[in-house]
Design brief:
heterodimer; A: two-stranded antiparallel sheet; 21 helices; globular; B: 503 residues; mainly alpha; 2% strand; transmembrane (chain A); NADH-Q_OxRdtase_suN/2 (chain A); EC 7.1.1.- (chain A)
Chain lengths: 526, 503
Amino acid sequence: MSSYLMPVLEMAAPTLEWRALAPVLLVFAAACLGILLEAVLPRRLRFVAQTTLVIAAGVASLAFLVINWRAGYAGRLAMGSIMLDGPTYFAWGALLVFGVLAFMVFAERSLNGGATTFAASAASVPGSADEAESSAARHEHTEVFPLGLFALTGMMVFASASDLLTLFVALEVFSLPLYLLSGMARRRRLLSQEAALKYFLLGAFSSAFMLFGIAMLYVFSGSFDLRVIHAAVGGATTGPGLIFIGLTFIAIGLLFKTGVVPFHNWTPDVYMGAPTPVTGFMAICTKFAAVVALMRVFFVALDGMRWTWQPIFAVLAIATMVVGVIGALTQTDIKRLLAYSSIAHAGFVLTAIVGANQQVVAGQATSASSVFFYLAAYGFATIGAFAIVTLVRNPAGEDNTLAGWSGLASKNPWVAALFALFMLSFAGIPLTGGFIGKWAVFTSAWQGGYWWLVIVAVLFSLVAAYFYLRVVVVMFVGEPAPTTFVGRASAWTWIPIIIGVVGTLWLGLLPDSVMQLAAFAGGFLR
Amino acid sequence: MTFPWLTFLGLLPIIGGLLLFLPMGKGAARTLGLVFSVATLAVGVAVAVMRGSGVDLSVTVPWIRAFGAWWALGVDGMGLAMILLTVVLTPLVLLAEWEPPAGRWSAQTFFALVLILEGLALFVFTSTDVLLFYLFFEATLIPTYFLIVGFGGERRGYAALKFLLFSLAGGLIMLASVVGLFAVSASQGMPSYLIGDLASLRIDGDLGRWLMLGFLIAFIIKAPMVPLHTWLPDTAAASTPGTATLLVGILDKIGTFGMIRFCLGLFPEASVWVAPFMMVFAVISILWGALAAIGSTNMMRLVAYTSVSHFGFMVLGIYAFTTTSQTGSIFYMLNHGFSTAALFLVVGFLAKRRGSYDINAYGGVQKVAPVTAGVMLLAGLSALSLPGMATFVSEFLVIAGTWARNPIVTAFALIGVVLAAVYVLAVLYQRTMTGPVTEQTQKAFEGRDLTGIEKAVMVPIIAMLLFFGFVPQPAVSMVETTAKATMEYVGVTDPAPVVKGAK
């Protein structure tokens, strides 16, 4: 009888390696729990509950990551959709650390007179009575924390996805919360909403491209599995047309998230419009996840096509450096400047990917490990820099104009000095992590035979150094701007800044430990 | 495990500098800064003594294993000369800048930055790992930048940025070469950045030439040679005399130091290949610097241009490839540090009283402030390499050594010696110190000859110059070891003496 009602379908329950997947699952569970808390807790308790949950989930997840790593867990998980290998470990660790630090800045309430930097009621029309009412009632969106955790979950899966379908789902999972978060700024709400809309439309476009590319690769190889695609590329019997189209379109999707020219257009507007803590989160975590996914797809699945994509990426790397660096030269807004700087950094990272040095020799760096180190150094500086951006204010709110930053050193030498340190790290000046990172990616490019790319990159580093130093000059030599002041922040902002400083110096002076970790994590499993 | 003296030597002033960022009174800060610089001097002398008695001070500890980079410090004759120059000049600069210019950052910050700079410079001179050297080479730019920005004159923002961008340009070109060295070393098996390991690779051919050029361009910018010298006069004119002393006296020496240690020490074949061009460039620098000095009206710019000329002599001696000329060059590096310090600081003392670096603002100072004038004369005579001054010995060695290699080039270089007399005596000394006493001079210098502190600064410098002038042998034999080792490694033999009339 029952067989008559139920369709006969042999469906084995998927097997999940709970323990090995625990870091992702914990973050995901915390995000779900956070949504539940929103529903059941009274407003006044939500903030404490959510922040506690974020920190606890982050710490627990990191702890599991370390324990699993010690225990030597590795291999394909969740029926082949996730690969737990060195790069996954490093990416998860970095995403958790930088993610939690960024979420801490979300929680800052001292700077805005007791409110977070997020809109009191993001759904109300800007300038409406509703908005004024909810502001006056001191409402706040504590949903930003679960949203952030969902994004983090997506990023972690994105960096470890071993089949293209998981990759795509993860992309959407981490993108959607980011679109929302971008539109939730308390000040300059229209700008923020415009940024969110732009990000959403362009992001949707690029997702569509990527999906199309995935479809082509599926048609070519008969599978979403990176391993199978690799084998199909090696023993290709069908014509190359499909794979070229597939490669191109999947690259567009991944390069969009990485912020590589010509798919970078969203970056300046979104970085500027989004609430600064969200920008900080996107600047490092999105980039980190996207770069790892990019490497995974191209190193694992499309390795056999490297002669095709290496020159293309080399050209894109140069274009990215040119646009990022030249664009940054003319900026007068500090967040836009950092956005262009992030584009330039994507170009520098790409040089190592072009090198495609995948030969794993014990204790030596591969392209992936150079990229990891670079992004770790970039991450500490980014977290710190954006946290400091939230501190510099005028009576209307954050002051992001370069003119407003003029003479900052005479008002608060420490804040100016710390920001200068982050600028120096971005510029790749020694004694900061940025230098070792830059040097590592250039080495990878040279070892891959792209010495000319190194020379081009070095020249653009010089131009890049100019605009970073311009910020330093403005802060230290400029006449003090009349209305700007440095806000008094709580530990929610200062802890990320201090960790950013310590991390930047640590990676600059004693990089060996992290470099060893990165070298250990330098080989993708297939 | 023996005590890591070289690490301690570099760390001591850095620790002192960092301590000075803690809040404290102005008097306490300056005293503490001076104490640290004197302690560093003591450690430096101790290092010299230990080195002299044959103690092996070198340290080699893994630093970044994945890249074959080591925390490797060591000291040879040339390094020791540079260490001594640095540790002696720093306390004197601190004394000379006891009262940094008003309206700028605090004296405490100045002392802190100078000490940090000293530590970084000491590490530059002791690093025996290419990456480590590069790291400190670039790191010295940061405190120097802030010394210019925080305490300099009118166009300090512009000058500091120009200095930094020129230096970074050189540094980044060098970075490409450093990265290339890694690729070469890694392709041989175990990557290593130790100078010793790299030197044994003997990187020749086109690759060696390109990599060498990356290093050389950086060092040409650093030891400013025409046409990449334009940052120096601007920077010197916009910084305080103390900063200029450290910059030209110590930091620019990294250029010539690097040429010997890295260009010659890692790429012997390529260095021999480039030597003729470098000798021509050196002569152009000598003459250009001297002529520009004669044409200067700003005393800081004048001193900076004399240094361009003097760096020309050092480079000439290095690329003449004779033991004599290279010994002379290294000795010159030491002496020029003291000589240029004397000039910059005495110019600073003048400007402190008169409030101007313009030569035309002075006249007849000798009659009002004879001690100042006397010190200025001695400093000037050391700049024109008068016999009896240490600079004479080194310049003579350079010229004698180079003559044996290439008399024509040397003949042109000798014009520079004549021009030196012009810019020192006819321009710098005569127009400021002699002649009728102007009203402003009377007002500025009446009863305000050199103070006790200022004398305490100048006496050791002049004494050093005279001591090395009359007793050059200990210093010469110390630096000669480096010259001999370099010549031997490069594989060039000294030209045979030509005996006239012998058939």
